[in-house]
Structures are given as C-alpha cells and as structure tokens.
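Morning!

This is the sequence you dropped in the shared folder:
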Amino acid sequence: MREDRRGRTRSGSYNGAYDEIRIEELEIYAHHGVFPEETGLGQKFFVNAVLYTDTHAAGLEDELTLSTDYGTVCQFIHQFLTDHTYKLLEAAAEHLAGRLLLKFSLIRGLTLEIRKPSAPIPLPVSSVSVSVTRGWKRAVIACGSNMGEKEQYIESAIRKIAEDEKCRLLQCADRIVTKPYGGVEQADFVNGAVLVETLYEPEELLGLLNRLEAEAGRERKIHWGPRTLDLDLIFYEEEVIRTDRLTVPHPDMQNRDFVLIPLSQIVPDWIHPIYGKSVSVLLEELEGKNKA
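The structure's back. Tokens below.
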C-alpha cells in the first residue's frame, strides 16, 4: 500500500492479477507536440502497451473471439493517434487509454507508453516517453431519498449512472425504508446501494454523483437534513482516500444500518480497508450494539 500526493492510499496496479498481451514498439507517424513544426510536419512515435486480460478461455479453445485481437488493437491505436492531435504526450496517452478500455471489453486494464524519439530538446537524449496505467475499478455507491417521489429520484440516478459510458452497473440492492439519522426531525428515507465498475478516478466519480444530486434538486441547507437525493461513495477498490473533498471509505458507514444493510446484500464480503472487517461483520457488530 502507498499514499500518493492526492491523499490516496493505493493497493497497487493490475500487474500479476491478469494475463498480459504485449504490443512493443508500434511505429506511428503522427502530429503531436507543443511547437507548430511538430503539429505541422509530424514525426515518428512508438507505442508500447500491456493489456491486462484473461486469456484462459482463448488458450483452451484456441479461438480468437475469446481473446482480444492485438492486430485490431494496433490498428485502433494507429487510427486514433493519426486522427487526433495533442500538445502533450500525457494527453495523448490519457485519451488513448480511455478509448481502448471502452472499445475492447475484455481488457480489464492496461499500461500504455508513448515514446517520442525526436523530442525538441537541445541536449543529447535518445527519446522521451509517458507511461500510464489505467483500468476498470470497482466502487460502491449508497443512495437515499426522503423528499417527493423518493423511488423515482433513486431510480433515475441509478439509470443515469448505468448510461454513463465510463460506468458499468454490476449489482443493485433492494430498497429499504429507514428512520432518519442524525437527530433532525424529518420523513423516513428510502435507501439502497449499487456496485459499479468505472473508469472515473474517485474525485471524478464524486463529481458525477454531485451533478446527479443537483439535477434532482438537492439543496444542502441543513446538515443531515431532508434531501431529494443523496449519493455517497462508500468504497473505491481497496483505496483509503482523504482529501478536502472526499473521504473513502465513508467515515461513518460502520454506524449506519441503512448503508450496511443494502451493502450486505451486494458486497457482503467486501473488506473495509481500515478496520479489516467485512461488510457482513460490520453489520453484525452494529446490530449487536443496537440490541444492547
């Protein structure tokens, strides 16, 4: 585990978790760079890619349709980098990585390097490159509402999450009706939770959730007060995140049965990265405290 400069303790990369398909030194003539002569005249770039996937079925059946066709991947990379122009290698790598993950459904993650051998540097250097590792990540989102058409607010939010190209809805918990939490007198809540895969980074996913809350007319006037829609990011992989905008895992989830009950239905074995306990154990402990 390591903590990065954005206050995130991360559990590692895709290395070792999947099989690999490697593409090495794919040569492409394209028009990326800061200077006019680079975007005008163009130059050679070399692409290296490691595609993290599962090749077991393809290996057993010797069937291309069960794997990712690296020839088609190479053609896609070539087409993308010749059709688009970016000033920075960072931008070219970021956008290409995202499109590859959206285009090829069997790729779970990838490490992508774009190398520039003719970088405009007035010093002896063989090349410069940018390498990124990106992939699908699992996240758990809790949802709730206690104003207006509660079920419709939640259903609409879940549908919009599922329709976002950078999210895949994996599981959806049953709705439950719960008493309000926090001491503010108000109507009962409808609560639920969803498990998704996403290409969004945590704060990007938070931005999506906040936009959906705003579209539902949520107003943040009273702490723990009534709301049309409440969307909380509970887990993001095994990461521990502490920033000015976001804390993951949700800091009070272990005290909230309206969060743990839906989570126990869809991710009962998910281990809390701080407490080292599963969701089902956290729920058992909370129910024990409530009965005492």
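Headline: The mean pLDDT is 91.

More detail when I'm at my desk.
O.
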